[in-house]
Design goal:
Elements: H1 15-18, H2 26-30, H3 35-51, H4 64-76, H5 92-100, H6 110-119, H7 123-138, H8 145-158, H9 165-173, H10 181-193
Helix pairs in contact: 3-4, 3-5, 4-5, 5-7, 6-7, 6-8, 7-9, 8-9, 8-10
Protein name: HEAT repeat domain-containing protein
Organism: Actinomadura vinacea
Length: about 190
């Protein structure tokens, strides 16, 4: 796989990703309406943002709102089938969207993030949920409907002994800056548990 698909974390091994032209501008991929193209673009942009920590300009800085809208579009979709992205499994579209939102999610995204967490069984997607949820919950002023629901779901998953401890800890880590008594109680309980 060459070009964009080759460096897209969640779409490795995706036959459809092989067909995406490496010379298509990222903005075109974001606006394409094609799930795989949008996912690959989100992976590329998030990777560039992450690498900017090590110096240099922040690429695609003016893309933030467009990235959020693209990610929200993918989160509203059903999870992509595992066959589409063998490396990631079911829900690569959700994983790409959530990962791209790890620093830019807003309080209004809590409901979409909760919807994905509620229905996924994929540990890759749950890990991406933890990243996006932390950003979204840090923007909440109180335990409003969407924020409170997401905090409650994180608590449910963090209490599930069938999940690996590291996965549960990552989810609890999303509550670091979440407001409210429920989040505080979960953090305290998690600190004793872990």
């Amino acid at each position: 796989m060459a070009g964009l698909a080759a460096t897209s974390f969640y779409w490795q091994g995706c036959a459809e990703g092989d067909a995406i032209a490496a010379d298509r501008p990222l903005r075109e991929l974001l606006r394409s309406g094609e799930t795989v193209a949008m996912g690959i673009a989100l992976d590329q942009i998030q990777r560039s943002w992450a690498l900017s920590r090590f110096g240099g300009d922040v690429p695609y800085e003016d893309f933030e709102q467009e990235v959020l809208e693209c990610a929200r579009t993918l989160l509203r979709q059903p999870p992509t089938p595992a066959e589409l992205s063998p490396y990631t499994g079911e829900g690569a579209n959700h994983a790409s969207a959530l990962n791209a939102m790890m620093n830019i999610a807003r309080a209004e995204d809590c409901g979409l993030i909760a919807d994905v967490l509620e229905r996924t069984s994929n540990p890759n997607v749950r890990e991406a949920v933890a990243s996006a949820a932390g950003a979204a919950l840090s923007c909440c002023d109180d335990e409003s409907a969407g924020c409170g629901r997401l905090v409650g779901l994180i608590g449910t998953f963090a209490d599930d002994p069938r999940l690996p401890v590291l996965e549960r800890a990552r989810l609890l880590g999303a509550l670091d800056r979440a407001p409210g008594a429920t989040a505080t109680a979960l953090r305290d309980r998690g600190a004793r548990f872990l």
